[in-house]
Specification:
- The complex is a heterodimer.
- By secondary structure, chain A is α+β, with helices and mostly antiparallel strands.
- Chain A contains 5 helices and 12 strands.
- In chain A, helix 1 (34-45) crosses helix 4 (143-151).
- Chain A is 20% helix and 38% strand.
- In chain B, a hairpin with a 2-residue loop joins strand 2 and strand 3 (39-44).
- In chain B, helix 4 (110-122) packs antiparallel against helix 5 (132-145).
- The longest helix of chain B has 19 residues, at 292-310.
- Chain B is flat, with a radius of gyration of 25 Å.
- The two termini of chain B are 18 Å apart.
- Classes of the chains: A alpha+beta, B alpha+beta.
- Chains A and B meet through strand 1, strand 7, helix 3 and strand 8 of A and strand 2, helix 1, strand 4 and strand 9 of B.
């Protein structure tokens, strides 16, 4: 028996699926990453640390995502919203004579102040007003535990970044095939006045774009390790 | 071991209206926005409001960690309190400090210093008998189990060099987003020169602002917090955190626009299910009472409906409304929340 699928519904005003961020630019892909989704599941389980063996069970399993944008008016689907760029300064305006406030200013590795006082500028990108359905294959042996924990997560669930709280239940059912999961998500999307925009399949298929993502987590914790996978994007609108 | 508080969280759904303000600026000085439900909304970023809450908690006298280079003196003081004589206290302080740092800043909690002093007392405050290994064991036990720096427990800390001391934040803030469509306005202004000899203004400029009813969603993970604090401190944490949420207002342009509006309505839930914020995806239309009244109606109706449809999955343990019943003030709200921590 192949491993079953669960349907995850990811909907919020803002989401951020971090990928390839360097320094002050925290990028987001325009769809959820495999590492982000497994991170979410492991959060629900309350599974911290490296989790190498558990992650190995998930690494080769299938993941398919459909992005649903909002319908603007009847039979007139809106184009998806552009990414939001959030300008953010860290460490400015603190009273450094107050030892506690001084702690909040970023310092160099050796604990001394950076040139110019230590204010850092970062840009954080967010996806606005989208919903994603992710058909995620789960090892049969883990299914029951994963489903229970998604309903009553040990740690709080968030959509890529801790500030992105979900507006809908994430767990939407278990299925024997991805197709069944997407029939369910299409119904949910219609109810919510949303329409599919694109689909992301794992591996190489006939599609509009095929590329490599380095987002298969092999090890969580402070020193994360990933390997890559090929994905295919298929436009649906 | 599974704690009683595992999966239990407090969710704050707050509505707060601000007149002419620019609470949180982007890099061109304009109020931040987002596009939700096809229209532009006013936005205050999570980090902006969170910073004010953190600073407000400090003003409320929260017990904080101390970061100091004067470790010797700090520990000597604890030894004095543990009834050492002055000379021995200083000697012990210096000995212990030497084991831990060479002129770098250390993050200490009072409990940790107390534990060291207690350890020194076992040896009648003879510095030679204090061994580095024992100290490290004590530190590990005290820092992780009995951390008395509430701010760290609530907001987390990350120490790249010592990840075993990392603490995951227990609270999370969503971006505050207006429940309705908002367009930024431009305020054109001029300023005159008091010493001018020609008519006209000496300076002109423009400021962007807006006004909005914001929906704020904040959750506090009691399970996470219970991993770093004991029950009594958990109660204290809920008290100070709730007060700080109530008092803190973003600092931008407060000198010129003074946007100090308090909460107008809050629904606070204690739940064991997955957390859920309200999407406000269809922008609220103003009624005779402006945006606030219809926003309150929508918030209540939405949460009630979600709860009914979810049945037991909703996991509700407590449900408190603040803002309409004048006999239920903020202190009552805090006390009610604390009844869930026994």
């Amino acid at each position: 028996m192949p491993d079953p699928y669960i349907l995850l519904w990811l909907e919020a005003p803002l989401q951020a699926w971090g990928y390839d961020s360097k320094f002050g630019r925290r990028e987001t892909l325009d769809f959820p990453t495999k590492s982000g989704l497994l991170g979410l599941i492991f959060c629900a389980l309350g599974a911290g640390g490296q989790q190498k063996e558990r992650l190995a069970q998930f690494a080769d399993l299938d993941l398919q995502v459909v992005a649903y944008k909002r319908m603007a008016a009847e039979n007139n689907p809106a184009s998806g919203e552009p990414l939001l760029r959030d300008f953010h300064m860290v460490g400015s305006g603190y009273d450094i004579s107050d030892p506690w406030q001084n702690l909040l200013v970023p310092k160099k590795n050796d604990g001394t102040k950076a040139v110019g006082g230590g204010t850092k500028i970062t840009y954080r990108y967010y996806i606005q007003d989208m919903a994603f359905a992710a058909a995620t294959q789960v090892p049969s042996s883990e299914l029951k535990n994963v489903v229970n924990c998604l309903k009553q997560p040990v740690w709080e669930l968030y959509l890529g970044r801790k500030t992105c709280a979900p507006t809908e239940y994430i767990f939407q059912g278990e299925f024997s095939a991805a197709e069944d999961a997407f029939n369910m998500s299409d119904d949910l999307a219609r109810e919510k006045n949303r329409t599919p925009e694109f689909k992301v399949l794992q591996g190489e298929h006939d599609g509009d774009e095929i590329f490599t993502l380095d987002d298969v987590p092999l090890q969580f914790g402070p020193e994360k390790k990933y390997r890559d996978r090929r994905v295919t994007v298929i436009r649906m609108d | 071991m599974k704690s009683f508080f595992e999966s239990m969280r407090i969710e704050y759904h707050i509505l707060q209206s601000f007149p002419v303000t620019c609470l949180n600026r982007d890099d061109v000085g304009a109020p931040k926005t987002a596009i939700i439900g096809g229209v532009t909304r006013a936005r205050v970023s999570s980090q902006c409001w969170k910073r004010q809450v953190r600073l407000t908690m400090a003003e409320l006298g929260v017990k904080l960690g101390t970061r100091t280079k004067k470790v010797a003196k700090y520990i000597a003081k604890a030894c004095l309190n543990a009834s050492a004589d002055e000379e021995a206290a200083l000697a012990c302080g210096e000995k212990i400090a030497k084991e831990f740092s060479d002129d770098t800043l250390l993050f200490f909690s009072d409990k940790e210093a107390e534990a060291f002093a207690e350890h020194a007392r076992k040896f009648d405050f003879q510095p030679d008998k204090i061994k580095a290994n024992d100290l490290k064991k004590i530190s590990k036990k005290v820092v992780n189990k009995n951390l008395d720096a509430l701010d760290i427990a609530l907001f987390g800390r990350m120490i790249a060099k010592a990840p075993e001391l990392n603490i995951e934040a227990a609270c999370s803030f969503s971006h505050a987003i207006s429940t309705h469509k908002v367009s930024n306005e431009v305020e054109f202004f001029t300023a005159v020169d008091d010493l001018q000899d020609e008519p006209g203004s000496a300076h002109m400029g423009s400021l962007e602002f807006n006004s909005a009813t914001y929906y704020r969603y904040i959750s506090l993970d009691l399970g996470q917090l219970a991993q770093t604090l004991d029950n009594e401190e958990l109660k204290k944490a809920v008290e100070v955190f709730t007060k700080a949420l109530y008092l803190a207002v973003p600092g931008a342009r407060q000198a010129t626009q003074s946007g100090a509006s308090p909460w107008e309505f809050a629904k606070v839930l204690v739940r064991k299910g997955q957390r859920l914020q309200i999407p406000f995806e269809t922008p609220i239309q103003p009624k005779s009472g402006g945006y606030l009244a219809p926003s309150i109606d929508y918030l209540k109706t939405y949460i009630d409906k979600k709860e009914k449809l979810s049945g037991s999955v909703y996991g509700k343990i407590g449900d408190y409304e603040w803002g309409e019943d004048e006999t239920f003030n903020l202190d009552n709200l805090i006390q009610s929340l604390q009844t869930h921590i026994s």
